[in-house]
């Protein structure tokens, strides 16, 4: 056999090589251990920052980017019914985010901190070491919670209420339920001084819900806000007693209205039943109506058939301005504006125009919801009503009621209504009466008339009414079964 061979020392027989091998292995292990010692803290910081929490301590900071694996949510309620964090806004072409409370099962947004000021994925929510909560964007504060004291923790309740608690945790120093956006939830009280605001429409119009002057009303956000719904004029309300509305509380099945002393005035029944696993939500939509939803613990969201107002045509923005809204048939342009492009007469500010104007009469039976909530000018005839409008440069529409002589002028209007043959329905006064009272009334009628039917019943209405009123002191709201009586 031929060839070149190189004689080399054996691994086994060389103590030098064995020692060097062990030394290299030892050094490598040290390097490996040191590497992990250096890397692990960074891994812990990264991982711990993205873990969802049930309580936020002072010193917390979080952004959408840090919690992207949790869909931007960093705080959960105890039962994981609601979450608090960043959601996609959809208000701009580039990605932007809102800080919000979300019903996790249905992904329904129930509260937002920065509805009109979205932030980027790197902007952060801070619950700083001084117990203050705020949202920062590019070094400036976009939103801050008006906390009365030093917050010791922030929690999200299973009711959807985001709260900041002090050291004693006895009562919230701040809560989102006191600062609603466009949604109210069951268990949430809405009182005089609060405002519910809808998202802005394509025409940059918002709608608001407010309690003032003893009534709860919806307003269209014209330059001069116009009311278009009143709780006191809704004929679905069941009245307990007369009084000025100061607050309204949403339960799992109804909306109850109270005076300043906390006495029940009236109630609107929304659902026949509710349970602990559902949340009732009242949402003021872009169209100006309040819709009620039942949010289930799963992913079920049920739209309840109790809208406010009852008729979609009772909102001044259901159709375009000047268009006629007809229930069930949609929107149409009045014949007087048939030649105007898009049914728009082009009136922006008549006071600044040098053109001459004239009044065009609308179709028969056309009305406007604003006349039900606006004070008329002094009584006059139709000629005087027209002259009042023509003498006021800000007047763009005038409505005259032939029966009452009332004249209404407006500087802005929304969509009109086709009244047809319908008259104005005045709300029936209804009361909640204790079942015992009803039994007494029934026995009284049976004794007087022998039955509850026929003309005899109508003749005894006065006696029934007076007897029911005398016995109303037996009524106890919290522990009684309710019956409805038309008085």
UniProtKB/TrEMBL annotation:
GO terms for biological process: response to other organism. Keywords: Lectin, Membrane, Receptor, Signal, Transmembrane, Transmembrane helix. GO terms for molecular function: carbohydrate binding; protein serine/threonine kinase activity. It comes from the Eukaryota. It is found in: Membrane. It is a single-pass type I membrane protein. The keyword Metal-binding does not apply. Its main location: membrane. It catalyses: L-seryl-[protein] + ATP = O-phospho-L-seryl-[protein] + ADP + H(+); L-threonyl-[protein] + ATP = O-phospho-L-threonyl-[protein] + ADP + H(+). PANTHER family: G-TYPE LECTIN S-RECEPTOR-LIKE SERINE/THREONINE-PROTEIN KINASE SD2-5, RECEPTOR-LIKE SERINE_THREONINE-PROTEIN KINASE. This is non-specific serine/threonine protein kinase. It comes from Aegilops tauschii subsp. strangulata (Goatgrass).
């Amino acid at each position: 056999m031929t060839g070149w061979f190189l004689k080399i020392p054996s691994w086994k027989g060389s103590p030098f090589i064995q020692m060097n091998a062990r030394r290299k292995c030892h050094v490598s292990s040290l390097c490996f251990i040191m590497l992990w010692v250096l890397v692990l803290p960074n891994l812990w910081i990264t991982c711990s920052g993205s873990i969802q929490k049930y309580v936020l301590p002072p010193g917390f900071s979080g952004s959408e980017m840090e919690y992207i694996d949790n869909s931007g949510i960093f705080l959960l309620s105890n039962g994981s019914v609601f979450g608090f964090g960043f959601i996609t806004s959809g208000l701009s072409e580039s990605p932007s985010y809102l800080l919000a409370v979300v019903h996790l099962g249905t992904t329904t947004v129930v509260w937002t901190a920065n509805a009109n000021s979205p932030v980027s994925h790197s902007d952060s929510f801070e619950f700083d070491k001084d117990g203050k909560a705020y949202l920062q964007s590019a070094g400036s504060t976009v939103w801050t919670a008006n906390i009365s004291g030093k917050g010791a923790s922030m929690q999200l309740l299973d009711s959807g209420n985001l709260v900041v608690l002090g050291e004693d945790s006895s009562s919230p120093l701040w809560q989102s339920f006191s600062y609603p956006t466009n949604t109210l939830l069951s268990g949430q009280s809405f009182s005089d001084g609060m405002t519910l605001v809808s998202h802005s429409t394509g025409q940059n119009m918002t709608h608001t819900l407010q309690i003032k002057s003893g009534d709860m009303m919806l307003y269209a956000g014209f330059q001069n806000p116009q009311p278009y719904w009143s709780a006191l004029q809704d004929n679905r309300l069941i009245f307990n007693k007369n009084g000025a509305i100061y607050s309204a509380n949403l339960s799992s099945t109804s909306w109850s209205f109270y005076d300043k002393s906390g006495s029940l005035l009236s109630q609107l029944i929304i659902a026949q039943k509710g349970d602990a696993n559902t949340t009732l939500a009242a949402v003021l939509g872009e169209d100006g109506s309040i819709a009620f939803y039942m949010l289930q613990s799963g992913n079920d969201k049920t739209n309840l058939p109790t809208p406010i107002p009852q008729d979609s045509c009772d909102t001044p923005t259901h159709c375009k301005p000047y268009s006629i809204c007809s229930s069930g048939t949609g929107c149409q342009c009045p014949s007087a504006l048939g030649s105007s492009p898009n049914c728009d007469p082009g009136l922006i500010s008549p006071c600044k125009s040098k053109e001459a104007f004239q009044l065009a009469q609308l179709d028969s039976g056309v009305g406007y919801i604003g006349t039900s909530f606006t004070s008329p000018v002094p009584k006059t005839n139709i000629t005087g009503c027209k002259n009042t409008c023509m003498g006021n440069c800000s007047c763009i529409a005038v409505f005259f009621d032939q029966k009452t002589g009332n004249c209404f002028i407006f500087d802005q209007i929304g969509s009109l209504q086709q009244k047809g043959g319908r008259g104005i329905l005045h709300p029936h006064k209804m009361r909640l009466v204790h079942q015992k009272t009803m039994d007494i009334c029934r026995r009284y009628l049976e004794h007087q008339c022998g039955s509850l039917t026929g003309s005899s019943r109508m003749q005894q209405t006065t006696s029934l009414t007076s007897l029911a009123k005398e016995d109303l002191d037996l009524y106890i709201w919290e522990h009684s079964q309710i019956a409805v009586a038309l008085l």
